[in-house]
Amino acid sequence: MASIRRSRSENLFVRYLILGSWALICLAPILWFLSIGFRPRTEIITPRPIYWPTFSLDAWRMLMSDWPIASYLRNSVLAVGGSVIIDLVLAIPAAYSLTRYDYKGREDIGFYILSTRMMAPAIVAIPIFFLFRNLGLLDSVWALMLIYAAINLSVVTWIVRSYMLDIPKELEDAARVDGAGDLTILWEIIIPVCLPGIITAAVIAAIFAINEFLFTLLIASTQNAYTLSVALANFTGGSDGVIYNAIALVSFLAFLPILALVILIQKHLSRGLTMGAVKG
């Protein structure tokens, strides 16, 4: 009995050791990048190795005094969060239609939706610029929200569609016997069942949106609509050269909301990444 307990405790120790080592490997680049943000710029660009770096808040003071970093972060959260909401509102009914209704050209429509993501964004950059200029939406968070939603709508629709294909139709048939309509079935049966897949699609859309640079730079012409991705470009030039510590600190602030979101919904996210398979 004692040997069994000893064996179990040893196995548990080995598991925690492996998981702890893996967590350290995953966190090491993040912590290293954060440490660069709190070091003097002279230590970062020096060719000599520094084994005991100096702690400095120069980059943080510069961001707080010379750059409206809070405004950039707010614009990023509003634009990304709004685009994800728009994508889910449009993608869930579209995916339900593609998986549950039989009509001519259904598979072709599904492939066309996905193929729009394969197009190079630079092809439509100029027409989109003139479109938003004529609508009076240039240099606004609303324009960024619509751009991000349009870019990621096809991916979100396809991901949600793949999860809906795994839901047995017997659940819907039983609900229709009880008198439920299509909207009731979608809201009370389909969405709760494929909620992990919907969360996964939302996280992927948020990551794609926060990394978008071309359209953000095109639409946001002033600091009123700058997001963190465009703000990073402001630290890569000028008379002082590349401000590495400021870049590292802003990059960490841009990464932090996604990290917090993933940690909060990691249970649903892990289920969404493992349930079902992407079907054509």
UniProtKB/TrEMBL annotation:
Domain ABC transmembrane type-1: 73-265
Pfam family for this entry, one: BPD_transp_1
Bilayer-crossing regions: 12-34, 77-98, 110-130, 142-164, 185-210, 242-265
InterPro entries xrefs: BP-dep_ABC_trans_perm, MetI-like, MetI-like_sf
Source organism superkingdom: Bacteria
UniProt-annotated location(s): Cell membrane
Membrane topology: Multi-pass membrane protein
Main location: membrane
UniProt cross-references to SUPFAM superfamilies, sorted A to Z: MetI-like
Assigned keywords, A-Z: Cell membrane, Membrane, Sugar transport, Transmembrane, Transmembrane helix, Transport
Function: Part of the ABC transporter complex MalEFGK involved in maltose/maltodextrin import. Probably responsible for the translocation of the substrate across the membrane.
Family the UniProt entry places it in: Belongs to the binding-protein-dependent transport system permease family. MalFG subfamily.
Protein's name according to its UniProt entry: Maltose/maltodextrin transport system permease protein MalG
Organism: Agrobacterium arsenijevicii
Biological classification of the source: Bacteria, Pseudomonadati, Pseudomonadota, Alphaproteobacteria, Hyphomicrobiales
